[in-house]
Design a protein that fits this description.
The chain is an alpha/beta fold and about 150 residues long. It has helices at about 60-75, 85-90, 105-120; strands at about 5-15, 30-40, 75-80, 100, 125-135, 140-145. It is elongated, with a radius of gyration of 18 Å. The model has no long low-confidence stretch (mean pLDDT about 95). The structure holds zinc ion (ZN).
Length: about 150
């Protein structure tokens, strides 16, 4: 068997604020997030398959990540449910694309959340290998299945 890792890169703009944090990130601010999703599987050996020689179609991985992560979080605001969320609900024009989550919206917690989402959606025989999320050019977090 030929185990191969397949990666797609994505980018999205998102604002967040870290609840009760003792630094500047307590304030609402934004990032251009750079996301890399890597899956692992065996190459398809069936000569009759339209996907011969692939682990999975790059296009399928793109669709899964785009529909379930990028399209949801791009140009949105991610906030902890510990914030005073009434304000955001009242200011609907400004905060239409707001996600109130039950976790502190750090890059670390975002990759944990993304891993859970993607693991439920990947085709059988394809395993999530890792997720890398750049919050800035110099700062990123990584989630690896083998670390869990
Ligand atoms: Zn930030």
């Amino acid at each position: 068997m030929n185990k191969i890792r397949v990666t797609k890169n994505f980018e999205f703009e998102m604002a967040h604020a870290l609840h009760n944090y003792d630094g500047l990130c307590r304030n609402l601010h934004g990032h251009t997030y750079k996301l890399s999703v890597t899956v692992i599987g065996n190459t398809i050996l069936d000569e009759d398959s339209k996907k011969l020689g692939m682990v999975l179609d790059f296009g399928l991985l793109k669709t899964i990540v785009k529909q379930n992560i990028v399209d949801i979080y791009d140009h949105s605001v991610l906030l902890s449910d510990k914030e005073d969320t009434e304000y955001f609900e009242k200011e609907k024009m400004l905060f239409k694309r707001t996600h109130i989550v039950d976790f502190q919206p750090t890059a670390e917690n975002m990759v944990i959340h993304f891993a859970k989402t993607l693991k439920a959606l990947l085709p059988e025989n394809i395993k999530l290998f890792s997720i890398k999320l750049h919050e800035t050019t110099n700062s990123y977090v990584e989630w690896y299945e083998e670390d869990q």
